[in-house]
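---------- Forwarded message ----------

FYI, see the Helicase HerA domain-containing protein record below. Original note from H. follows.
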Amino acid sequence: MKVDIDMGAASPGKPAMLDLEELLATRLLVQGNSGSGKSHLLRRLLEQSAPWVQQCVIDPEGDFVTLADRFGHVVVDAQRTEAELTRIAGRIRQHRVSVVLNLEGLDVEQQMRAAAAFLGGLFDAERDHWYPVLVVVDEAQLFAPAVAGEVSDEARKVSLGAMTNLMCRGRKRGLAGVIATQRLAKLAKNVAAEASNFLMGRTFLDIDMARAADLLGMDRRQAEMFRDLARGHFVALGPALSRRPLPVTIGAVETSARSTSPKLTPLPQAQDDAHDLIFTPGPEEARMPVRRPPPPAPVPTAELLAQLARPAPAPEPPAEPVFAIIDEAERTAGIETVLQEILDDPDAAFRTDAVLYQDFLVRCRIRRVPGEPLDLAAFRRMFAVARAGVDRSTANGEGWPVALKLSEGLPADLQGVFLFVAQAALAGAPCPPDATLARIYGSHSARRAARLLAYFEERDLLVSRTDFHGRRVLAFPDLGCETAPGDPHAPDTATPTRDAAE
């Protein structure tokens, strides 16, 4: 179904139309300095498309919560745990409810973690719930920064990974990313490059103008035009907007933001008692007189000597803790047991992370594993390590910590495959066949497993070679080891569990 949205005017008497169905397939990038009208543009897009498609707005300043009164969006306060936000996002996709994730009141690192958990829940929804969703992210440079800032590397990595999944892999899951940024130079290039539609507003810095001109396919000498754009005026390009750069004036909106641009107001008339108004405390500031307690009566010398002669009182027994002390070793053993139970299920390899995570939580409750449950990100990491099936001798060697460190730079769904082939190299085992690697990845396609090895090789993590008998060998330069030759076309063989290996 073709639905055109009126974004404003392209020329006198001619509307600027946006193909909503094409937008869902090709994504949108909006750029403009503060005050250029980005938020106004996003509000116009949200209002016009609200009757046609589900919407999720990542709102760092709380400006879009007013959509709830007019269009029925549900406001989700982000001051929750990451696990709770992930579960809420899954229910949002299941019930197709339009929401605004309000990040107002959180610091930058907390906003990045909350947005990453929420986007992860949208991305990991079950296949039956992959309905089209317009995911609008305002101030995207906060969640996908081009360079490291003052936040921790972990928060930046998690947030950047969620934004990359949204823009690079979200289309097949029905997620259409619409990202807005003040500075193209501060936005990660791999996130910006996935957008096929662009709306470029006013900007003044040369580096931002040059990137905007490159994205629009314009001569860099024409980039000066971005300095002259008025508020609410943008240059549009993309399959959902126009095949050639098209000046667009954004139309009016029905709702308004809670925060507005500052307006000049006249100062009050000069007052003769201005000095007294500033330096004289008001009635509510008047302090009550402080009464000093009388000094204590002097203690007789005989009583002081008697106190010194008394034996010291016995120490009081320590108070019993209110909550039971958690045995970390017991908790770790319980989690490892639950993970092994899931791995022993032959169908677990082909389940999504979200389904496996829910199964993990249920099993932990059944076994009464103490402590807070793992969040989704920690579960993915531990499950990837467990799926590698490393034995005790390999885990205690010098190479395994290096392999774990190398895997941290990979997407969450690829870490298990990398660790699986790395432990085979550390143990000197034959190179696993493509069918086995496909099962570890959660797929039935052996060709996809071969592409995964090519991806690792592009990242300089391993080197693949074939011996004279056509058998594959995987060498790991950073680990200083390689697998034994193995037939890549051999059938899948079940990997022995860790307990059996031990």
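H. also flagged this: Confidence is low (pLDDT under 50) at residues 495-502.
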